Amino acid sequence: MSTPHHEEQHTSMGATPTNGAELTRQAVSATLHCLTGCAIGEVLGMVLGTWWGWSNGATIVLAIVLAFFFGYSLTVWPVRRAGLTWGRAITVALAADTVSITVMEIMDNSVMLLVPGAMEAGLADVLFWGALAVSFVVAFVVTVPVNRWLIARGKGHAVVHEHHHHAS
To answer: pTM here?
Structure first.
C-alpha cells in the first residue's frame, strides 16, 4: 500500500528533469558513476599493460576493455538487485552507459597519449599517475554535458533511474 509520502517521493525521484539544477545534478551523479567504473578499468589496464611492458596500443585496448567491463558492471548489479533479469539488466547498462563511457575513454586515453612521456613512464613515475589523474578530470568535465543532454531526453542514466524507481 502506498502512502502519500511514498507517492510524493516516487514522483519527485522518478521524473526526469529536462533543465535546471536538478538535471545538472543528475548529470554530475551519472558522470561520477561512469567515471568510477571507467577509472577502475582504466587504472587496472594501464597498470597491467605498463607492468607487462606492452605497447601503447595494446595497453590502451586493455584499459578500454576493462573500463567498459567495470563501467557496465556498476550498472548491471544495482538493476539486477532491483529485480531485472540478466538480459534486461545488460540491455539497460548498454543503453545507460555506452555513450558516457565512450566519451570518457576517448578523452582520458587522448590525454594519456598527448602528455609527452606519460605512456612510457613507469608505475613508480609521478608523470604516469599525474597524467592519469588529469585524464580523469578532463574526461569528467567533457562528459557531464553529454550526460546532461542524454538525461534531458530520457536517455543515458535516465533509463537506469526508471528501473530503480519501479523497484521501490
So the answer is: 0.82
